[in-house]
Structure formats: structure tokens, C-alpha cells
Amino acid sequence: MSRFGSKFYDFYTHPDNTGLMAKEGKRYGYSGIAVIGHDTNEKTIFPEDFSIYTGVEIQAKPSRVRVEIRKYRESDHILIVEGGEEEINRAAVETEGLDILLHPMEFNNVLAKAASDNSVSIGFNLSLLIRLRGEARVRELKTMRNNLKHARKYKLQLILTSDAHDIYDLRAPREMIAISSLFGMTENEAVDAMSKTPLNILRRKSLDYIQEGIEII
Amino acid sequence: MKTIPTLREKKRYLAFDVMSEKTINRQELVREILNSMISIYGDKGASETNPSLMSFDGKYGILRCERERRVETRAGLACVNNIHGIRVSILVLGISGTIKGATEKFIQQTLVNKPELRKK
Question: Taking the alpha carbons of A5, A151, A175, A164 in that order, is the dihedral positive or negative?
């Protein structure tokens, strides 16, 4: 059964022109995007059936990451930490309340276990594969393969993001799936990474949500 | 000379839409698509995919590829991002078994839905 009827989301974009990006996103088949570090303007006209969410990217020293995450935890912003060295990844996954750890460079079983405990999703930044060529891309692919291996073992949620700065960086869901197949992701995993995981994050951000397994009747 | 049907290549045609800051010509696009494919899959993979551009009018185009290599072709097209400093992105509109099908079903359909594009 084809799963392309699902709703697709892109949770990591930095558009200058949010209205245009939303229009193109809708044409490409997305149901919503998350804009990072940009207050959505009331005047911009958004297409119907298209949702804009706001996200916060936390850029801080490893020692400050925990404090920053706690600060935004109660808000309805989507919290993203761009991974890198082990120290910052560790600080990020060990703090409850983080949604996405994007493209960690060094990832191991300890971090994966912590991420699984705090239900942090692992993000794959596909713009790196689109933009880079040659040796640099080989390095990124290797990192992504490693991340995917750990994520599968610890049943972490995956998420695909485009890191789009303008409409030329945006890619349609099917193209994203094709690109993710370069580092061994299956079609099913890729579809989940663009629809199930984002919806799950949104569910956790909603007001009705209390804790995993508890709901108000 | 025509070969027997079972030995013929099984082809698929991808209808695509190019968005670019400035108009690009056919030659540049072909070169960039091939470059992108070779960069990802190497010479061997690109030869198996066997891409060739059937038509391109500055915005819409049709690319032929091997039937079993549709996903690879898509990935190759998606990784095209820059032609001589001009920002470019390619959106695959659909895949069909014939050129006629690809044109009628995907390219003309798009033009019907968006009449303002036809005036250009």
C-alpha cells in the first residue's frame, strides 16, 4: 500500500520569506513546516490547510544547553539542538524536554540509550547531501549511516529535515525519500520520519498531553 | 535496428519542473544532471541508470531512465542545486511509461491547473 497519502512535515527551515516558502511547501505536498528563530508575521498570507510552527534552535556551550532546554521546555516551540561533538550531544540527549537532536557527529550507544529514555528524535539534515560533493559528502553519509544504525538498535524516532533557507533548498517528500535511501534508510522509515515523528512531536506539544500513556477522558 | 521486446531496455519517463533564478539552457542542465548522478553513484551506477534528457523547454522537461533505477534517478535530480552559480531545484512531477503519458498526465495537467504559466 502506498503511504504517500500521509501528511508530511519539514521541521527545520529558516526562510526569509515565510509566505513564499509556505506556498511552495504546499505545492510540494507538505502539510506544514516549522520555522526556526523567526517570529511569524501576522500579515503574511498563508495557504489553507497549511500549518506553520515555530521552533527554537538552541546554540549554547555544552554546560549551558541543559539550562536553555529547561527554559523553553514548557513553551509550544519545537526544541532543536544541532549536534556536533560528543559533549554537546550528551548534554542535549540527557535533558528531558528536547524534541530533536539534529545530525550528531559523534553518536554512540550511551547517547542512543539516553535519547531513547528522554524520547529525543534523531534528525538527519539532508541539505548536507544536496549541497556537498565529493569527500565532504562521503563524510556526512558515513555519519548518517552510523546514526541510523544506532537509532534502529535503540528504536529511536527518526526525522528528516531540509534546512531550507529559501525555496531552492526545499525538496518534495518523494525526493527526500530518494535522498535518504543513499545512506540506507528504507522507504517506510523515511515516510515515518516525515509524517509520524513530526505528528508525535506535535501531539506531545498539545495542551491535552500530560505524559506518555496518560490521557484525560 | 530494433531488437526483440524481451531484450529491449525497460524505460521510464520522469516529468519534472525546474525552478531557477534565471533561465538555464538545455546543455547546462544535462551536464549538471549527469554530474550529479556520477558524483553519487559513480560511472558504473550512472551507466546502469542510463539517464537521457528527452525534452526541456526552460521550465518543464522529460528525463528517461531505467525502470529499476527510478529512485536513484530521483536522488540524482534532487541533488542538483547549483548551475554556474544559479540556484536551481528540480521537482519531479510524476513517472510514466511513455513520453506521451508523461506529457499529458503531468506537464499539461500542471498547465491546465495554473493558467498563468501558459501566458509566458
Answer: positive
User: Which residue of B40, B75, B89 is in closest CB contact with A170?
Assistant: B89
Q: Is B22 on the interface with A (CB under 8 A)?
A: no
Residue B52, CA atoms < 13 Å, CB-side half-sphere: 7
Q: B88–A178: do the CB atoms touch at under 8 Å? A: no
Quote the domain boundaries for residue B105.
8-118
- Report yes or no on B29 lying in a domain: yes
Q: First vs last Cα of chain B: how many Å apart? A: 41
pLDDT digits (tens, 9 = 90+) for A44-53: 667 777 888 8
Q: Say which residues have a Cβ less than 8 Å from residue A44's Cβ, sequence separation at least 6.
A: A18, A19, A22
Q: What ipTM was assigned to the predicted interfaces of this complex?
A: 0.87
How high is the pLDDT of residue B115? 58
Domains and CATH numbers, chain A: 57-160+169-205 (3.20.20.140)
- The grid coordinates of residue A137 equal 559528502
